[in-house]
Amino acid sequence: MPIDVLMPALSPTMQEGALAKWHVKVGDEVKSGDVIAEIETDKATMEVEAVDEGKVEAILVPAGTQGVKVNTPIARLAGEGEAAAPAPKAEAPAAPPPAAKPAPPPAAAAPVPAAKAAPEPAAEKSAAGERVFASPLARRIAEEKGVELSKVQGSGPHGRVVSADVESAKPAAAPAPAAPAPAAKPAGAPLAKGTSSIEQFGIPPGSYDLKPLDMMRKTVARRLSESFRDIPHFPLTLDLEIDALLAARTKINAALEKQGVKISVNDLVLKASALALKQVPDANASFSPEGIAYHHHADISMAVAIDGGLITPIIFRAEEKSLAQIAVEAKDLAERARGKKLKPEEFMGGTFSVSNLGMYGIRAFGSIINPPQGAILSVGAGEKRPVARGDQLAVATVMTVTLTCDHRVVDGAVGARWLEAFKRLIEDPITMLA
Fold this sequence. Notes:
Layout: E1 3-6, E2 16-22, E3 29-30, E4 35-40, E5 45-49, E6 54-59, E7 65-69, E8 73-78, H1 106-109, H2 111-117, E9 123-125, E10 131-133, H3 136-145, H4 163-167, H5 215-230, E11 233-241, H6 243-256, H7 265-279, E12 285-288, E13 291-294, E14 300-302, E15 304-306, E16 309-311, E17 314-315, H8 323-338, H9 344-347, E18 352-356, E19 375-389, E20 392-406, H10 412-427, H11 430-433
Parallel strand pairs: 14-18, 18-19
Antiparallel strand pairs: 1-8, 2-4, 2-7, 3-6, 4-5, 6-8, 9-10, 11-20, 12-13, 14-17, 15-16, 19-20
Helix pairs in contact: 7-8, 7-10
C-alpha cells in the first residue's frame, strides 16, 4: 500500500518548518537512508532521510513551501513492487460516499483522520463550493495580488496550485474607487484584502519593500516576546578593568602559536563565566513549574549573529575545558552556525548565555533572557577610560558587562555574587589557569 512521507520533527520543540528543497522527483526509487529533501527550521537547514523504500508516487508539498506542520504528509511512496497509483483529482471528495457502508478493519481505521485532515490547510472553496487545492505560499501570494484561486490552473501534484501558477495569473479587476482613500486608518482597524498592516499607520503603498518572515525570524520574534513579557527580569551592571586580561591573552597566544590556536577576549569571557557559575552555583539555575533546576555543569550558550536572526550554540561543560579547547570549539560552532549546519543538540539546551557586542563598539547593553536559562551576560567593548587610583586619576582599559537575571530564580544578591566572582576572574586571569 502507498506510504506517506511525513514532515519530520527535527527537534523536540519544532512545530513547523519550510520545505527548502527536494532531492527526488516523481518516479524515483528511494531506499531507507537516502536523502530525499532539505527542511529549514528556525535554526538550521537539515537533510531528511527516507525511512521506507519505494517509488516516489507524488510530491505533496512543493519546494519553497513555508509553515509546513510537523506530521503533515509531504510525499507519497508506492510500496515495493506496487505500481504508482493515479493522482487523485482536486475535485474528488475527501471522504468515501455515504453509500459505502462496510466499516474498515481496525488496522485501517487509524490513518483515515490523518488522510482526511492533511489536505484541509491547502484547500479553499470557490464561489461554487468546489474545493481548491493550493500551497500556503500560493494562497498568500493570491491574496496579495487579488487573484481568485478557483480560476487558476494548478501545475503541482494532483492539480495543486503552486506559487508559480499564481505569479503568472492576472489579478481580478479592481473596482474604481468611489472616493479618495483616507490617509490612514486607526491602529487595530480591519485591513483591506491585500493590504500590509504597516499601512494602517499611514505609510503609503509602494513606499517600502516587504520581506516575508522566515522560520527563524518568526521563532525569534515569538520566543523573545514571550521572554520579555512573561519573565520578571532585572539588570545588574558592572565595569571591569581588563588590562591584565589583555596582557595574559598576548602571552597565551604566543604559547599556542605553534598549535595554530588563537584565544579571543570572548573565549576568556566564556571560560570566566563557566568558572563563576561553579563558584556561585545558585546562579546556574532554571525555573520550571515543578521547581528550580540547579545544573551540574556550566553549559554556556554563545550568541552568534547569522543572516535573518541569531543562534546560540553551546560550549558544554565549559568549566572543564581549557582555553585552547574553548577557542577551537567556539570558532567551529560559530562558522557552522553561520552556514546553518548545526545539529539541534548543538544549540538546544544550555544553562547560561553570553552575548558579546564589543566588536561593534557597543559600550553597554542588556540582553533578553534565553528561557529556560536563569541569566544572560551582555558584554560591551573594552575601551580606555579614566579611573580613580586613590586620589589620583589614571587611564585603564574598561569593559562594561550587564547580567540580566530571571528574578524567579536568581535574586539580586545571587546575581551580585556571580558578578563579583566573574570580576575576580577577569581582572586576575591567572586564576582561570590555576
